[in-house]
Amino acid sequence: MARILGVEFAPICIPIRRRLQTFAVFQWTLSFLIMGPVCLALMVCLLFTPFYAIPLFYSVWYVYDWHATERGGRRWCWVRNWQIWKYFRDYFPVKLLKTSDLDPTRNYILGVHPHGIMCDGAFCNFATEATGFSKQFPGITPYLITINYQFYFPLHREYFMSGGTCSCSLSSLKYILTKKGTGNALALIVGGAYESLEANPGQLVLNLSRRKGFIRLALEHGASLVPVFSFGENDIFCQANNPHGSRLRRLQVLVAKYAGFAMPIFYGRGVFNYTFGLVPYRKPITTVVGRPIDVDKVENPSTDQIDKLHIGRPIDVDKVENPSTDQIDKLHSSYIESLIELFEEYKIECGLSDVDHLVIE
Ligand SMILES: *[C@@H]1O[C@H](CO)[C@@H](O)[C@H](O)[C@H]1NC(C)=O
Ligand SMILES: *[C@@H]1O[C@H](CO)[C@@H](O)[C@H](O)[C@H]1NC(C)=O
Q1: Which residue puts its alpha carbon closest to atom 1 of ligand 1?
Q2: 318 to each of 160, 216, 306, 321, how far by Cα in Å?
Q3: Spatial contact of 237 and 266, defined as CB atoms under 8 Å apart
Q4: What residue ranges are annotated as transmembrane (predicted)?
Q5: Ligand 1 neighbour 361 (Cβ under 6 A)
Q6: Does residue 209 have its Cβ closer than 6 Å to ligand 1?
């Protein structure tokens, strides 16, 4: 602890650093929730001021650039490296745990679980460099795949894209897997809107058993599948009680079905008040990506042994033109198996206990 002329500095320094962390997290929550509509309102208001040329020029750009979000987006390394994301990281803190190299001559689909309320962990790890993704996985470009509507809002879309996020439309995913060479990693939050309705501290419910689109995508493009689990993602917000069948849940499912996004009624702590607000709780988030397995040489390995070797490592997928339901189901099961294995292996290290298990719905 620094003591200069009898003055203790730590108590002054620490709160400022922590305040910056809170600010970093709070501004991200706000930009996720309301920055889009605010930008839209700003553009409309500008039309009635002497600066009306700005929204007019911008709308020309907007139309011209409409497809960018489906063509790999427009990442801006400078934004990905902003100091504010390091404060964001340190708030929880968020950690990226690499357990296997990813070969840059292949493409990858990272299945990220669980969704949580706002995917804070996935955002920090894949849309910023705060946890050093590019250093940990040299030659791999991460694309955080996110819901389309974030890209409809003027200005907001540019900000959102700068982190390397892209639209979740099928043409967007196919474009990255076919037109961008190799070394691309789609970070797909597989459970989507429905899974966010299950995000509660201590809960480990995934919506995965009927989600096979990403498996088909992997088969069609020969992209390797990598299970990724974000421990702690569900612990940073609480959510209004919405059990299956409750009136709230029925309404939320309706919104999710027709709007494509969910409306969890969530809360964390406040900026000043520690018991209620939109700032997430300070709980660690550890995102574990695959794992390396030392392989002893085995003569004539049995199918069982071969299957074992796949666990937790990227599942290499050969390109299949028209995968059958059977092929998809098979890969889907081995993916789920790998994910469970990964979860079980790292849960204790990440603060869970022996009795915690994944619930896959
Ligand atoms: C999982 O998501 C699907 C939509 O993809 C939805 O129909 C289903 O009800 C969800 N399951 C649960 C248990 O929420
Ligand atoms: C924070 O706000 C909540 C809800 O309004 C209130 O119940 C609680 O007492 C407040 N806590 C503090 C520390 O002010």
Answers
A1: 207
A2: 33, 11, 16, 10
A3: yes
A4: 25-53
A5: yes
A6: no
